[in-house]
Amino acid sequence: IRASAGQPRAVLSAAPFAPTPRRVAWPVWASESRRGQVGYVDVNGNDHGNQSRRFGANRSGHTHAGVDLYGYNGDPVLAIADGTVVRTQSFHLGSDAILVDHGDFVALYGEVAPGSWNEFGVTKGTRVSAGDQIARLACMQGTPSNCSSHMLHFETYRPGTTQNQQWTGAPPAALLDPTYLLLVAAGPGPNG
Q1: Please, are residues 131 and 125 in contact by the beta-carbon 8 Å criterion?
Q2: CB distance 57 to 116 below 8 Å
Q3: How many angstroms separate the CA atoms of 65 and 86, rounded?
Q4: Calpha distance 45→12 (Å, rounded)
Q5: Better-scored residue on pLDDT, 92 or 124
Q6: What SS3 state is found at 181?
Q7: Is the CB of residue 155 less than 8 Å from the CB of residue 114?
Q8: Contact between residue 129 and residue 85 where contact means Cβ atoms under 8 Å apart
Q9: Which residues pair with 83 in a beta bridge?
Q10: Is 186 helix (H, G, I), strand (E, B) or coil?
Q11: pTM of the prediction?
Q12: How far apart are CA 102 and CA 127, in angstroms?
């Protein structure tokens, strides 16, 4: 559920929050009606949004190191802030990921279509601005015409990170919680 920029300060986290730059954009351009929704638990223990998609959700033996954002197969993935692409890599179930150094944090944009960044002229070293298209969402299960799973998996790390990290037990030292950053990028909600 959307939250205004004033509400995220009430979010609980197992890792430090990613810094929030002055200028941010929502990281997936989706026609999906749940665009801008972020799952989280506030300090009062209240659930907001889809809990299976939140940072820190239990994922059968490991902990979810990112936030899954609604979108459809082929939707454009956008840079959340100004930065420089530091890596593209294979990711999960045939999808890929792009890591962008945004200065105070590195973001991983996961579950993108392999090689889709080529459409936007994005390669390692490409400078991007907040809101620039950098890739497209992948179809994770099924075929593009019958896709059963598609989303943007969004992780954040401390500067210098060039590879995503698994989370079992305590969160990795480089991992940052993207929840607050995403809530700010979502902008004011219905009550904001």
Answers
A1: no
A2: no
A3: 19
A4: 8
A5: 124
A6: helix
A7: no
A8: no
A9: 128
A10: helix
A11: 0.87
A12: 10
Query: Where are the alpha helices (H) located in 20-175, listed in sequence order?
Result: none
**In terms of Cα–Cα distance, which of 176, 160, 38 is closest to 99?**
160
What DSSP letter does each residue of 121-149 carry, written as one string? T--TT-EE-TT-EEEEBPP-EEETTEEEE
What DSSP state is assigned to residue 31? -
pLDDT in tens, 78-101: 999 999 999 999 998 888 999 999
129-170 tens-digit pLDDT:
999 999 999 987 655 566 666 899 999 999 999 988 888 778
Work out the number of other CB atoms within 10 angstroms of the CB of residue 23.
12
Give me 40's structure tokens.
């989280």
Query: Contact at 8 Å (CB) between 65 and 165?
Result: yes
Contact 75, 137 (CB under 8 A): yes
Structure tokens at 189: 């909600």
First to last CA, the chain: 12
Q: Which amino acid is at 107?
A: A
Residue 180 in 3-state DSSP?
Answer: helix
